[in-house]
């Protein structure tokens, strides 16, 4: 489908798309380095967290410059643009839209002039109390009332935070943040800058990951440890849930704006985070391999070959093969770039469906009883097409194994699965889903076993999309999420 910007065809594959993460954020304070380049490479490592738009804001110490556009990091920035972004500190953002449409003015970082100078801000997550925050914004600054559209330079919840931060007159931004942050509800990892200082904050539940790293001559904050690795920063620690950090010439200052009540997103381990990232001291790759081993014990089957759905199913398929003794093989080839084309596909191309993304290796799978390991089933369309494609390529049997439990509930904390009505799991038993997919058997890992594989206690995890227990109050239905869009 053509997006509202008229350029990017994200839904080229008409069959389905996987869960879409909200965003990736990055921040750097390194006066003697090329911060725009560091941010560019940091965003490159976080591209999987958001592929609709990308942006960088840098500050020279006196002036902030923002550059953002629709598209992948490599499409938005070129050598000339990066060279023009001179600064001592900066932030960057890769975006998927969960609140607010996928259009240019919703790309981040957002920018706003305050009475103390500029403020550029980037956000990963999703706020659940936007009505309340909007009312507060009007109380703080009655001028914000008329007309609404003019005061909110975009419809996303991030702009609301930026507007709030700039509504406290001449108060220093560090003090302002300590007033605003405790009022935010939902999932948020923020990186923001004024002319001189890099700031970072993480919600009290720590739903989304945010880490702190050290360069030889500066500091880095990023959504994932993999982004620290790519810019040569060493991992220092996670930004604590409920922590607010400021970094400037004077060094790093940390304050707590709320007590930590950890509820890390379980789905980060299954699908969202890069395998080479570490969350709460546990490697995502090691967790996924362990999930595969457990899956083999929970759902054994006689078969000739274990194949992954690339790429996120790969570590669990390795684990499944290892624990079951069934050989591992690559039966599907993935085209990593096709979903990000600028050309709207013709009807003929769209009918190819899943083949745009995955192509079977006939000589590997023909005549075999296959175990296919995938990370999750959202609507089921992808897996249905996959099973059909594998049978057409000559597979004798297709046994589907899923490295997460059935996705039964939507996410309000920054992941776009689908509405509950679009999910396949609610109301259907595993056998019915198996029949609907056309598979010979279907097995999901149990929620307890998945939790065990993360090495974190269930009490410290959000598992709401699997069990419906939301650790942060959610808006009634989708109304709150859509509220800002309705104006
Ligand atoms: S609902 Fe699911 S995807 Fe959303 S934060 Fe909780 S575990 Fe993660």
From TrEMBL:
<feature type="binding site">
    <location>
        <position position="465"/>
    </location>
    <ligand>
        <name>[4Fe-4S] cluster</name>
    </ligand>
</feature>
<keyword id="KW-0315">Glutamine amidotransferase</keyword>
<dbReference type="InterPro" id="IPR029055">
    <property type="entry name" value="Ntn_hydrolases_N"/>
</dbReference>
<dbReference type="GO" id="GO:0000287">
    <property type="term" value="F:magnesium ion binding"/>
</dbReference>
<feature type="domain" description="Glutamine amidotransferase type-2">
    <location>
        <begin position="23"/>
        <end position="250"/>
    </location>
</feature>
<keyword id="KW-0460">Magnesium</keyword>
<keyword id="KW-0808">Transferase</keyword>
<dbReference type="InterPro" id="IPR005854">
    <property type="entry name" value="PurF"/>
</dbReference>
<dbReference type="GO" id="GO:0051539">
    <property type="term" value="F:4 iron, 4 sulfur cluster binding"/>
</dbReference>
<dbReference type="GO" id="GO:0009113">
    <property type="term" value="P:purine nucleobase biosynthetic process"/>
</dbReference>
<dbReference type="Pfam" id="PF13522">
    <property type="entry name" value="GATase_6"/>
</dbReference>
<feature type="binding site">
    <location>
        <position position="411"/>
    </location>
    <ligand>
        <name>[4Fe-4S] cluster</name>
    </ligand>
</feature>
<feature type="binding site">
    <location>
        <position position="375"/>
    </location>
    <ligand>
        <name>Mg(2+)</name>
    </ligand>
</feature>
<dbReference type="GO" id="GO:0006189">
    <property type="term" value="P:'de novo' IMP biosynthetic process"/>
</dbReference>
<comment type="pathway">
    <text>Purine metabolism; IMP biosynthesis via de novo pathway; N(1)-(5-phospho-D-ribosyl)glycinamide from 5-phospho-alpha-D-ribose 1-diphosphate: step 1/2.</text>
</comment>
<comment type="function">
    <text>Catalyzes the formation of phosphoribosylamine from phosphoribosylpyrophosphate (PRPP) and glutamine.</text>
</comment>
<keyword id="KW-0479">Metal-binding</keyword>
<dbReference type="InterPro" id="IPR035584">
    <property type="entry name" value="PurF_N"/>
</dbReference>
<feature type="binding site">
    <location>
        <position position="312"/>
    </location>
    <ligand>
        <name>Mg(2+)</name>
    </ligand>
</feature>
<keyword id="KW-0411">Iron-sulfur</keyword>
<protein>
    <recommendedName>
        <fullName>Amidophosphoribosyltransferase</fullName>
        <ecNumber>2.4.2.14</ecNumber>
    </recommendedName>
</protein>
<feature type="binding site">
    <location>
        <position position="374"/>
    </location>
    <ligand>
        <name>Mg(2+)</name>
    </ligand>
</feature>
<keyword id="KW-0408">Iron</keyword>
<keyword id="KW-0658">Purine biosynthesis</keyword>
<dbReference type="InterPro" id="IPR017932">
    <property type="entry name" value="GATase_2_dom"/>
</dbReference>
<dbReference type="InterPro" id="IPR029057">
    <property type="entry name" value="PRTase-like"/>
</dbReference>
<dbReference type="GO" id="GO:0004044">
    <property type="term" value="F:amidophosphoribosyltransferase activity"/>
</dbReference>
<dbReference type="InterPro" id="IPR000836">
    <property type="entry name" value="PRTase_dom"/>
</dbReference>
<feature type="binding site">
    <location>
        <position position="265"/>
    </location>
    <ligand>
        <name>[4Fe-4S] cluster</name>
    </ligand>
</feature>
<comment type="similarity">
    <text>In the C-terminal section; belongs to the purine/pyrimidine phosphoribosyltransferase family.</text>
</comment>
<feature type="active site" description="Nucleophile">
    <location>
        <position position="23"/>
    </location>
</feature>
<feature type="binding site">
    <location>
        <position position="462"/>
    </location>
    <ligand>
        <name>[4Fe-4S] cluster</name>
    </ligand>
</feature>
<keyword id="KW-0328">Glycosyltransferase</keyword>
<keyword id="KW-0004">4Fe-4S</keyword>
């Amino acid at each position: 489908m053509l997006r509202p910007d008229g350029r990017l065809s994200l839904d080229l594959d008409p069959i389905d798309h996987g869960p879409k993460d909200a965003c990736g954020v990055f921040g750097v304070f390194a006066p003697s380095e090329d911060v725009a380049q560091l941010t560019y490479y940091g965003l490159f490592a976080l591209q999987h967290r958001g592929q609709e738009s990308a942006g960088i804001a840098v500050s020279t110490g006196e002036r902030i410059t923002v550059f953002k556009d629709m598209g992948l990091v490599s499409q938005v920035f070129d050598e000339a643009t990066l060279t023009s972004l001179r600064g001592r500190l900066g932030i960057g953002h890769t975006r998927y839209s969960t609140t607010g449409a996928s259009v240019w003015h919703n790309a981040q970082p957002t920018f706003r002039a305050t009475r103390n100078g500029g403020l550029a801000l980037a956000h990963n997550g999703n706020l659940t109390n936007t009505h309340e925050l909007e009312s507060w914004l009007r109380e703080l600054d009655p001028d914000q009332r008329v007309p609404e559209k003019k005061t909110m330079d975009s419809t996303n919840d991030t702009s609301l935070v930026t507007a709030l931060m700039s509504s406290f007159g001449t108060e220093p931004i560090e003090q302002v943040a300590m007033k605003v942050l405790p009022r935010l509800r939902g999932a948020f990892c923020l990186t923001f800058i004024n002319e001189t200082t890099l700031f970072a904050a993480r919600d009290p539940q720590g739903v989304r990951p945010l880490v702190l790293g050290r360069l030889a001559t500066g500091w880095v904050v990023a959504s994932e440890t993999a982004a620290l690795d790519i810019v040569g920063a060493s991992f220092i620690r996670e930004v604590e849930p409920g922590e607010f950090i400021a970094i400037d010439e004077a060094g790093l200052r940390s304050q707590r704006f709320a007590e930590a009540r950890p509820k890390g997103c379980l789905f980060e381990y299954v699908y969202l985070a890069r395998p080479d990232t570490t969350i709460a001291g546990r490697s995502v790759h090691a967790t996924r391999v362990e999930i595969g081993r457990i899956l083999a014990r929970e759902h054994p089957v006689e078969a000739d070959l274990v194949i992954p759905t690339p790429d996120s199913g790969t570590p669990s398929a390795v684990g499944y093969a290892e624990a079951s003794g069934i050989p591992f093989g690559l039966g599907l080839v993935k085209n990593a770039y096709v979903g990000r084309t600028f050309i709207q596909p013709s009807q003929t191309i769209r009918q190819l469906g899943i083949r745009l993304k995955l192509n079977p290796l006939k000589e590997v799978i023909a005549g075999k009883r296959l175990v296919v390991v995938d990370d999750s089933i959202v609507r089921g369309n992808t897996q249905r097409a996959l099973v059909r494609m594998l049978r057409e390529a000559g597979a004798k049997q297709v046994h589907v194994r899923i490295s997460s439990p059935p996705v039964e509930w939507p996410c309000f904390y920054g992941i776009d699965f689908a509405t509950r009505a679009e999910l396949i799991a609610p109301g259907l038993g595993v056998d019915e889903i198996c029949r609907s997919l056309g598979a010979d058997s279907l097995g999901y890992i149990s929620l307890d076993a998945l939790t065990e594989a993360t090495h974190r206690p269930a009490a410290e995890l959000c598992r709401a999309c699997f069990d419906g227990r939301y650790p942060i109050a959610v808006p009634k239905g989708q109304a709150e999420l859509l509220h800002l869009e309705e104006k």
